[in-house]
Amino acid sequence: MVSPSTLSPCSTFLFPTRYLKHSSPSPPFQRKRLLSLTVTYLQKADSDAPSLPPKVQTFWQWLRDEGVVSAKTPARPAVVPEGLGLVALRDLSRNEVVLEVPKRFWINPDAVAASEIGSVCGELKPWVSVALYLIREKLKNDSPWRHYLDILPESTDSTIFWSEEELAELQGTQLLSTTLSVKEYVQNEFQKVEEEIISPHKQLFPSPITLDDFFWAFGILRSRAFSRLRGQNLVLIPLADLINHSPNITTEDHAWEIKGAAGLFSWDSLFSLRTPVSLKAGEQVMIQYDVNKSNADLALDYGFIESKADRNAFTLTLEISESDPFFGDKLDIAESNGLGETAYFDVVWNSPLPPAMLQYLRLVALEGTDAFLLESIFRNSVWGHLDLPVSRANEELICRVVRDACKTALSGYHTTIQEDEKLKGENLNPRLKIAVGIREGEKKVLQQIDEIFKGRESELDQLEYYQERRLKDLGLSGEQGEIIFWEPK
């Protein structure tokens, strides 16, 4: 029997705190959400009403002058509850093209490479090079992107822009630890780029660039850049990035595409944006940002959450300890099945446990007499065996460790679910509303996980374990589990 200290909630076996998933050298960037304006009335769709902010009117006129939009363009910028958005000028059918933006108006690593700083940015991470480019252009009065940069927000409600007092409302949440890790990551990237690029090439960066500038650019890319485009992993597309998110649109399919040459004598590709639903004139054109993001992801990237319960999630981080006497064998089995020394499992509210989570738990907890499954003769079949309970001791251990970890995580919050539910009925500012929703959602998922493993604990005596299954396979056990003895004739 493994001692409690070997597989405790505070050990490397299971971490209730979410590790940063976006701290890799090339963090993924998703689409945008603009929160630059506080005006909340809807701009009239059939006129150039003066209520549209002057800088937005100038931006629209610039696009007209450049031939990006025309009188036939079926949507235009408008003031909406989210800030700025796109509003239909006429009735639109599902999958109808709303706008098309040529490649010469895209801001991506190719645009950086063709600029004055391209020669010194070639070895940088793509997002860092684009961030530097954005900052430099913003500091230039004569930037060709001036009219676009003027309508970009200075910040959003993303948690990376929250004050210490606001972040304190996230006490105990995985979102807090993820946010702090992201901020540390951005700070480290800024220090490197300042030492390696900005300082040695001051002739290319005549205006001082601060950490706040770098955070601004990171926030813009995090919230507004399109990804998963053909041949494009990171691209800002002016006008298209005004489109807002709707929780009522449940598919990401066919919302946009990259088209080939814009015309017979043009080699310029087009970004084509479509409406995923039918619209009436005056209604806002919206899309689904990402059906798989949790509320914590939405809060970090865009600065909003949804009320849908299935956006609530908690990430269990499991790890094979290097001190485990069977570390090498367990790691080999994990890697053979698409996992590794550390594995992350997102548990979503009111959904089954993630595939392979129980198998990985049982693998990590294998020891003592159960360790025979790690022998080479079982190497090709052990993962299948782990899909079912191995032994009572193994199953009891994983239940206890997971439940202890849930209790530890729940003790880290400074409010109860009941207190959060009461607060949700009050008129909260947007950031406090996010904090309350996040911590309530995480606690509910933790309680759900605890209930699942509590239920498994109550069934330990009724479960069928490996040895019993093996005896049945050999015909040595009856249907009720009794051992059959064969007497010689």
Automatic annotation (TrEMBL):
It comes from Morella rubra (Chinese bayberry). It is an enzyme of class 2 (transferase). Belongs to the class V-like SAM-binding methyltransferase superfamily. Plant protein-lysine LSMT methyltransferase family. S-adenosyl-L-methionine binds at residues 82-84, 224, 244-245. It catalyses: [fructose-bisphosphate aldolase]-L-lysine + 3 S-adenosyl-L-methionine = [fructose-bisphosphate aldolase]-N(6),N(6),N(6)-trimethyl-L-lysine + 3 S-adenosyl-L-homocysteine + 3 H(+). GO terms for molecular function: [ribulose-bisphosphate carboxylase]-lysine N-methyltransferase activity; protein-lysine N-methyltransferase activity. Its main location: plastid. It is found in: Plastid, Chloroplast. One of its GO terms (biological process) is methylation. It comes from the Eukaryota. GO terms for cellular component: chloroplast. The lineage of its organism: Eukaryota, Viridiplantae, Streptophyta, Embryophyta, Tracheophyta. This is [fructose-bisphosphate aldolase]-lysine N-methyltransferase.
